[in-house]
Amino acid sequence: MDGEVAPGFENVRDVFGQFEADAGDGGYAYAAWHEGRKVVDLWTGSTGSGSWTAESTPLWMSVTKAITALCIQMLSDRGKLDVDAPIASYWPEFAAAGKQDITVADVMTHVSGVMGSPALTDMVSLDDGTGIDQTEQIVKLLADAPPVWEPRTQAGYHTTSYGWILGEVIRRIDGRTLGAFFREEIALPLGATDTHLGTPVEHHARIPTIHTTMWPDVMPPEAREYLEHVLETARDADSPAGISCLARNGVSVLDRLPEVFNNVPGRVAPLGGSNLCGPAASVAKIFAAIGEPDGIDGVQLASTESLEKFAEIRETRDDVVLHVPIARALGYWRNKVLTPRPQAFGPNDEAFGHTGVGGQVGFCDPKARVGAAYVRSHYTAFPAVPLLLNGALYQSLAG
User: Which end of the chain is less enclosed by CB atoms within 10 A, N or C?
Assistant: First the structure.
């Protein structure tokens, strides 16, 4: 274990040190900011080529979706985008196949039904990620694709299409790719120079190797049954879940995360749903900055007014891909639990952020003025450690 904690946060370090064995063959990191200052920055384990360090830049999987939402929020704040306007008003080709009335908000709340298509699935190899970096071709396929259900009639996790659709909306409005917008408008102003959304090849040596998901023996039977059901439906190429997860031949992208994201195509593409890459301290700083009234280091990413709008819950129906109801705001998941399970983002209902497959977590709590992030490289089907670390963090704040 390495890193540092501010005075008064020693119990977070103590909890972190109790679970180092949970890193498996990989490593993990946890960081938190409070009232604009870094209070926790810890890491442990292996990257696959050496020890995890402060310079290691892991992949954050679907935590990325919250960062993409932040980019949309910033454009909305500047009057360049209306989330309730049809996507076709910014991207005319998207109107094809009955999608003319689908709004930006419909995609951000996972109710648009635009999950993908057989042609898109055939384009992306689950053996090595080949094709996943062909963004221009992929967004053309999504523009041609019909929704898999009548828009707004149900909710289902847009596992891969979320990032491609919103990334193209950003490019049509701003002229920059999602990766360039994030880099120039968020990462560099905040001093998170080690953070990318789509990482250039010259930085890949700092990305920890992703390992096949662990299924711990301590995992409760009901949790195991639930996740096995999610994976089973995601492998059905004819289901919304399978289309969302690029399923073919009895497997989905959820079964092939190491194959896709340990290779160049899965790392270089600006995948707004999955491949944010950076240290925990930098990602936690970004989440903290969203909720700080005056920003951090003189950088205010978005207004208080837009925060209220984007953090408002818009969707709570049962998700046909994830098979649980989720309290969704505009691209952010809220901390309001709709089924009996622990809160992922600390104790406060006001918190929002996103989780990622295998145990990744990033969130902002504007009430406590906290931003925190946890990431690991040996993925797990039962991510209890970030919940324990968040508990220790809030105990420190209370103390």
Answer: C
